[in-house]
Structures are given as C-alpha cells and as structure tokens.
Specification:
Length: 253
C-alpha cells in the first residue's frame, strides 16, 4: 500500500498522514513514513522526541556531494544522475513507536524546478522507496508533487488530496488533479477536513462533484491541543482516528 498525501498548505495533510500511519500500523503493517514537505512537521505529528533536531536529507550537504559526485554551488559542473540510495532508508530513518520515518525536506524556492544535486538525490530516493520497498508507505508532500516522476507515480496506490471548505483549497485540489493525471496517477481521492457544519460539507460536495470523496473529518479543538502539547493527533482525537481507520478499511475491501 503506497499512499501519497497532498493539498494546500494548512489544510491538515500532516494530521491526516499521522492518522493513516497509525491506522496502517494497527492493522499489523510495517509502515515507512516519508516527510517530503519542505515545511516538515510529520515527526512532531507522530510524537518523535526532539523532532526539531532532525536534519532533512536535502540539507545533508556532505552526503549529497558524495552520492552525486559533485560540489554543491559550483556552476556548470557535472553530477551523477543515478546516485546510490538503496542503503539510505536504513541509515537515515528513525524509529518512532515502531514506525520508520524519513525526513526528506525540499529544495529552496529559488532553486525550485532545477536539475540540481539535491533535487536529483531526493527524486531518486523517492523512486527507490516507492518501487523497491515492500512496506506500507505514507508520503506526506506539498501540492507541487515535485518528488514524483512518471515511473514513480505509477506505484502510488492512493493519491489523497486534503481539502478544507474554501475556494483556494478547492482550486489547489484541481491543480493537483491535473498534475496527477499528467503523471499517470489513477486513484485520486478527496478527504474533506475541518468540517464545521452541513454547509461546509455541502460546499465540498457541490464544488467537487468530479472528484471521488473518501470521507470527511470534523473540525475539532483537540487537533489544536495536540499541536500545543506536541502530541500525536490520534492521542487527542479518538473520533478522528476512528473515521480514518474506516477509510483505511475501505482500501482493503
């Protein structure tokens, strides 16, 4: 089971990722969690100790230079486009209550879209993780899907886009759908988050008729409390955990 999660910033991607990871683990599956969002928060959402001290792989300059055989920052240089990454999941993942976690990070905005050593290593690593590993994988990523290539995208069993009641969130979902179609991702699902009323629910049902809806998560102050207490959301919000577990159950029926 390979699941990628995307959506506009702030809609609750990482919260949903934490729920999904815990639910898959409770089903007895070995889970590899990948934080591919430059604004990395998945470690904190899973309750990792000293989460703020984790160095994203994109910032490991010595490793990137070694694997791509180049010097970062040099102009016009050559570098290896297929660096070795097969040993990195064991070397660079950390254990969080039985879940393996890797924090990829991202390339700085000024370098976005570049063919640079950092972006090459991350893309090759994600390709290895999605194609060569047999764990359940949950990939928490930004809206741009830039870590996914065409070959990698075919390994994604579920692309889940998190939306909240709001036109900007819906528009981002439409952009992600277009990118997903271009990459060949077949199974795109929507999760409506922060639902406060029937009006919120009806808004998403009306605006997203051309999407397949997986379900809805209600707005709750418990998620905010979890963030303030640096606790996983599933410890504070059992209702949300139950709803997501039902979603996960539908994947296997």
């Amino acid at each position: 089971m390979k699941i990628a999660i995307s959506g506009k910033g702030g809609v609750g991607k990482t919260t949903l990722a934490a729920f999904l990871i815990k639910s898959l683990q409770q089903r007895g599956m070995s889970v590899l969690a990948i934080d591919a969002d430059p604004d990395a928060n998945l470690a904190l959402a899973l309750g990792a100790k000293h989460a703020g001290e984790i160095t994203p792989i994109s910032e490991m300059k010595a490793l990137i230079e070694e694997r791509t055989e180049t010097k970062i920052g040099t102009m016009g240089g050559f570098f290896k486009m297929n660096p070795k990454v097969s040993d990195l999941p064991e070397k660079l993942s950390i254990d969080v209550d039985g879940v393996r976690l890797m924090v990829l990070g991202g390339v700085k905005a000024a370098e976005a879209g570049c063919i640079c050593p950092q972006s090459v290593l991350l893309k090759v690593l994600v390709t290895h993780l999605m194609l060569a590993r047999d764990e359940a994988i949950v990939l928490d990523m930004e809206a741009g899907l830039e870590h996914l290539g065409r070959g990698t995208a075919r390994a994604v069993d579920k692309m889940i886009v998190v939306v909240e009641p709001g036109r900007r969130s819906v528009e981002t979902a439409r952009q992600i759908k277009k990118l997903s179609q271009e990459l060949g991702i077949k199974n795109l699902l929507i999760v409506g988050n922060k639902i406060r009323s029937e009006r919120d629910r009806d808004f998403l049902l009306t605006e997203m008729k051309d999407f397949k809806l997986l379900g809805f998560l209600p707005f709750t102050e418990r998620i905010i409390e979890a963030d303030l207490d640096e606790a996983p959301p599933y410890e504070k919000d059992p209702q949300g955990m139950e709803i997501v577990s039902e979603m996960v159950g539908s994947f296997f029926t």
